[in-house]
Amino acid sequence: MSAIDSGLLSPVTTGHDELVDDAAFLDAAIRAEVALVRAYAVVGVAPASAADGIVDALGVDGDGRGAGAGRPSDRIDLDRLVAASVAGGNPIIPLVGLLRELVPAETRVWVHRGATSQDIWDTAIMDVAARAVAQVRTSLAEAADALLTLAEAHVGAVAAARTLTQHAVPTTIGARAAGWSRAVERAAARLEGLKFPAQLGGAGGTRASFVEVTGSVEGAQALVAAYAGVEEAPAPWHVDRAPVTEIGDALVAALDALGKFAGDVTTLSRTEIGEVSEGEGGGSSAMPQKQNPTEAVLIRSAALRAPQLAATLHLASALAVDERPDGAWHAEWPTLRELLRLALGSSAHAAHLAAHLRVDAAAARANLASSGGLIVAERLSIALAPLLGTAAVAAIVADVGSGADLADRVRAAAGTAGVEVDVDALVDPANYTGVAGALVADARAAHDARAAHAESAPARPASSETAQPGPAGTRPEGGGR
């Protein structure tokens, strides 16, 4: 079976798909099935030998990537699984049969015991999402660090702030970059707060099958805890899809922040502006002079696709009827995967772009001066209107717009009114950047405070970047599902 999507139509994700490809989801589903057997062994229902036999047969080691060479999914004929998934509407039904073929005959009764397909597939989806989100957070942190370094390097570099596409007042390149950094860090913090709960509800979400297998309600509760680790959900969430929509919303917020950064880069790198450029810009097939802001363009493409994907997740959540959705659940799978894929690719590109972005402070100064000094018109209005009157200030602005020198016109107006004014200081854009410098310093202080807190805080369990259930139902520190 040939791949339909190798990234040809989605260059922003090319090279960043491994964590969310089909094999990754299959690995996660196998890990979930193994975790269930281990949980049965932990609560004393299944013999430890059965759990160990299944672990060995399926090749799932401590981190779930696969014992020895290869991955757990390597033991499954993916084409066969895909073809067989159509009849039941999900891949877990045929997967269970394939797994039972692989394990010792005496252990087969424990594979998928009491579980429903949605239990395993939802757990697998959360597993994949946790690993992908961990990588996105790493890339976002790298991007934020690079942008903050950029901000500090250009803390006093004055540039034109633009509102509604037009020059407004002076700002600094540092303040602009600090704004990018803060937004990216905020998005990373939101991802840090996500939960990736396991699913174990049984056929109708009552866990009746687990009560039956373990012999009591308490036994079923213990099983759920052993299976889910510290990522245990307070209740089955077969039709409460908040875990999925919350991940989707946080991913969109991250792509929003990256899209803003990338959008500014595409604007500021325009030939007629030229205040920034990509360190490794792309070329053109027809115009050899061009150095396109390719990474920024790719990031923007992801940011533009993301919101509609999140909307689909919310639509599916709202239509999660009965005790298992009839199609809404299925609609989530490729949608969430695509969001994760876009976030992985765009965050990696953003980290690279931020680290290699070039600033042309001279171009920024030239653009700043292009209005003949009227970039400080707001300041003139505030400072001079009480002294000269609004009509006089309006006349100064009009004259400068017609080619007059700003400083000369202010001196003349002040002299006529008999007013003492430090004209050179008043018309210097560098003297009208407000708290721009403080914004950079505050961004650094907040960044360092977060970093110090992260270092001093106990390791967050069940972030599930790599940890998975240990042998016979135990979980290594930081493990969880």
TrEMBL record:
It is an enzyme of class 5 (isomerase). The keyword Nucleotide-binding does not apply. Keywords: Isomerase, Lyase. Residues 454-465 have a biased composition (Low complexity). SUPFAM superfamilies: L-aspartase-like. Its EC number is 5.5.1.2. Residues 28-305 form the Fumarate lyase N-terminal domain. This is 3-carboxy-cis,cis-muconate cycloisomerase. It comes from Microbacterium lemovicicum.
